[in-house]
Design brief:
This protein is an alpha+beta fold. It has a domain at about 50-165. Helices cover about 55% and strands about 20% of the residues. The protein has six helices and five strands. The strands form two sheets. It has a three-stranded antiparallel sheet. InterPro entries: DUF2058. This is Nucleoprotein/polynucleotide-associated enzyme. It comes from Candidatus Electrothrix communis. Pfam families: DUF2058.
Length: about 170
């Protein structure tokens, strides 16, 4: 007794006896291979040549290089955005008549000379200090937060208002 679907296809004339026996033989081989624990696809694959291995390694290396270049390009774009933000929004300092404002960066204490009202605004969290290359610039707090989104290490001093800072002057 065979497969009822096969019998119907044979009676309808859609397949001949040779095609039906071929399909039956393939099904038998597949069931035997599955019982032995062998994968049908494993046996159907061609052995991998050294050239294919080299090509695959080259493709992986190229992907890694392009990923690294994309990261570098993104970092460069972020630094350019930071520079543009700081230059466009920096607050002019009073180098000649200003007071020294000291802040720590790593293990060193740095100072910049700014006007007295700017010191008050720095303490209130309205202004922040950002490092741009080897110089320090004073920018509005909003700009300092935008810089911090791109590079947290560039923001040197930014006081966040606390719960007790809600007093109105």
């Amino acid at each position: 007794m065979g497969n009822p679907l096969q019998d119907q296809l044979l009676k309808a004339g859609l397949v001949n006896k040779k095609q039906a026996s071929k399909v039956k033989q393939e099904q038998y081989v597949q069931t035997k291979k599955k019982k032995k624990g062998k994968s049908v696809r494993k046996n159907d694959r061609k052995p991998i040549s050294q050239a294919e291995v080299a090509r695959a390694a080259e493709v992986a290396r190229n992907k890694q290089i392009s990923r690294k270049q994309a990261e570098e390009r993104q970092q460069h774009e972020q630094q350019a955005q930071i520079k543009q933000l700081v230059i466009q929004n920096r607050v002019e300092r009073d180098e000649k008549n200003g007071q020294a404002y000291h802040f720590a960066l790593g293990k060193k204490i740095h100072r910049i000379f700014i006007a007295e009202e700017m010191i008050d605004r720095l303490c209130q969290g309205q202004l922040g200090i950002v490092q741009l290359a080897d110089s320090f610039e004073v920018v509005p707090a909003k700009v300092a937060r935008q810089v911090a989104e791109r590079d947290k290490g560039a923001v040197i001093s930014l006081r966040e208002p606390g719960p007790g800072d809600d007093e109105i002057w």
